[in-house]
Amino acid sequence: MKKTIHWFRQDLRLFDNQALVNACEYGQVLPVYIHDPVNCGDQKLGAASEWWLHHSLESLNAALEGSLNIYTGDSASILQQLVWKYEISNITWNCCYEPWRMELDRVVSEQLEQDGVEISESNGALLWDPEEVLKRDGTPYKVFTPFYKRGCLGAMPPHKPLQKAKGLFLKDPKSVELDALNLLPTLGWDAEFYTHWKPGEAGAIQRLETFISSGLKGYKDGRNFPDRENVSRLSPHLHFGEISPHQVWYAVKRETADEDVGHFCSELGWREFSNNLLFHFPHITDHNLNPKFDAFPWEPDGKKLKAWKAGQTGIPIVDAGMRELWETGYMHNRVRMVTASFLVKNLLIHWKEGERWFRDTLVDADLANNTASWQWVAGCGADAAPYFRIFNPVTQGQKFDPDGAYIRRFVPELSELPKKYMFCPWDAPSDILKATGVELGSTYPHPIADLKKSRADALVAYASIKESGTSNG
Q1: Pick the catalytic residue: 197, 249, 374, 376?
Q2: What does R_g of the chain's alpha carbons equal in angstroms?
Q3: Residues 316 and 453 in one domain
Q4: Centroid of chain to Cα 172
Q5: Is 316 among the domain residues?
Q6: Domain for residue 470, yes or no?
Q7: Which tens digits make up the pLDDT trace of 130-151?
Q8: Is position 374 annotated as part of the catalytic site?
Q9: Is the pTM higher than 0.90?
């Protein structure tokens, strides 16, 4: 029988895995995962994502009955050695759209084709191929609505999910143990993760079923409230490919077609949009898509950045979000926008600082989504929020956490405050602060920024670059 390698990357699943199905049809399959610190450069996984990856690989290996072959090092060299050792005739993989992975795919393809190996690539990560979703003039979209409505919904429907791949899997005795990758933290900061997440394909399917049964109804409006269950929490499962967007798309589409279903599908569309931006404009990982922001007068401040990371800004909804992130490896999407806006607009700290911290602490730290979202909030990305749209964290908290349940959960030192002052404790009379055990500057910090003044300062900074550079189109 022919021997084939399936190269697992961001497709850690057996269901709806076209490349793995192709491998099984060729003959015996050597399933391979390579932890590659050599080629990723500064786009390596953050610590929270490494925690997830460890448990996801553990789950995949169990599903393969112990046949997952794990290696660490330069992917191109390892694959070539395996080709020679096992006389491999074919290699299959699902495309990844991170710049370093795309370059690695090019190198591996050229190298192995010279060895006479047949390469089979599939799209297992996106609903639509980014090379095909283009404007009529052949250029990529930079605005979401036409991208989604014309480019995506106007194209062929996504393919229906495939059944579970079944094959004869081979085990290489030289495969290393999962623990050799050193993905788990040596300190116990991940203790709470285990109560919030179940990495792996089974956990992904279970999470999807739970969302459809108890979170999809009311999604359109409920998704904005961080204390409600109207969020899917599928993002880390999608990032690591434990479930495909096709499985999610069609599972949701089987429900009654209403505004909740339509809005959730459009959120999958935003995931597509971010990946298309990264595919066509790979420089956005390090540079503003809108070049006029290259002249923006950012104000680096290590002390304020540290307070923001620690959830000690003195702004309750911001602190709640940053503490949720540290405890769970996740932050509610509405709160992500509020915390990001506070960093780049109230503190005038560069969006790259926030992007780096989120990439290190989020279990769903997808390079495309994370980069595009930070640029969106900062006003320098595609279809970006206007820079003058500055989220007021007090009114955001009052509107989307009206009972203060989210703040009370993650900022318990304020839990006894009346709702009237929950979002702005600095406005509370001294007798109320004393009665509720709140001492500003001691039990809870004073705000590190004056919201009104910092908003005005941000608008002045924006005005200084408004006439310079070019528009992002």
Answers
A1: 374
A2: 24
A3: yes
A4: 33
A5: yes
A6: no
A7: 999 999 999 999 999 999 999 9
A8: yes
A9: yes
